Amino acid sequence: MPGSALPPSSQDSPAETARPGISRRGFLKGAGITAASTALIEGVQSLRAETGTAAPPGVTELGPGPVPVHLHVNHAEHILNIEPRTTLAEALRIELGLTGSKIVCDRGVCSGCTVWLDKMPVNSCMTLAVDAVGHHVTTIEGLAPEGGVHPVQAAFVRHDAMQCGFCTPGMVMSCAALLEHNPHPTEHDVRQAVSGNLCRCGTYPKVFSATLDAAGERRA
Ligand code: FES
Ligand code: FES
């Protein structure tokens, strides 16, 4: 295969470099790397067996390389070729270009990355994409019917419930999820619903009033 051998060096004899693209030294180096890789993999496997972290019999391990992952996002099916360690946030933003959900802390602290999994709000930075297989994922881009605006989005605009807007997609997804499950929320319910959503600009009072307004509109 072209380029599969290491380049010849000044230590290679003419005989060693006679065949283009391969030398005895290069071959031995390559063989050494292969042997070291095999030993490393075996070492990791035996360590996992010893520590009880190996996959149980009958369970297929995925990765570490890319695997096909089927995702249902905003009423469309997608097949992504991604590593199993890919988070849902990364899959949505990098693979599908759905950048509405924000990766802010990337560790489950701020909820800026909130999306729905079967209408339940989740932190997509803490959810593996493979764990979303078989579920319906909704992002801020798919919250309202195409070309429309969700009542919570409209109420956020009316109440001016944003400043920099970085937390806003996550806030809207949390508030809209609340209304999906509770059409008669109190302010306490809204506070609970966004208790994980951090807003550094301090828009909380307007988020509460906007969500209660949206709930009233939906009931009307
Ligand atoms: S980015 Fe996911 S919780 Fe902060
Ligand atoms: S509007 Fe700026 S962080 Fe919430």
Note the beta-strand portion.
5-15%
What string gives the helices and strands in order? HEEHEEEHHHH
Oligomeric assembly: single chain
Physical arrangement of strands within the biggest beta sheet: 2-1-5-3-4
Helix content: 25-40%
Pairing-aware structural class of the strands and helices? alpha+beta
Assigned CATH superfamily of the largest domain: Beta-grasp domain
Task: Explain how this protein is built.
By secondary structure, the protein is of the alpha+beta class. It has 2 domains: 1-61, no CATH class; 67-219, Ubiquitin-like (UB roll) (Roll), CATH 3.10.20.30. 36% of the residues lie in helices and 11% in strands. It has helices spanning 24-50, 88-95, 151-158, 168-181, 187-193, 204-219; strands at 67-73, 76-82, 114-117, 120-123, 136-138. The chain has a 5-stranded mixed sheet with strand order 2-1-5-3-4, with helices on both faces. A hairpin with a 2-residue loop joins strand 1 (67-73) and strand 2. Helix 4 runs parallel beside helix 6. It is elongated and about 65 Å long. The chain binds FE2/S2 (inorganic) cluster (2 copies). The site of one FE2/S2 (inorganic) cluster has 11 residues, from loops.
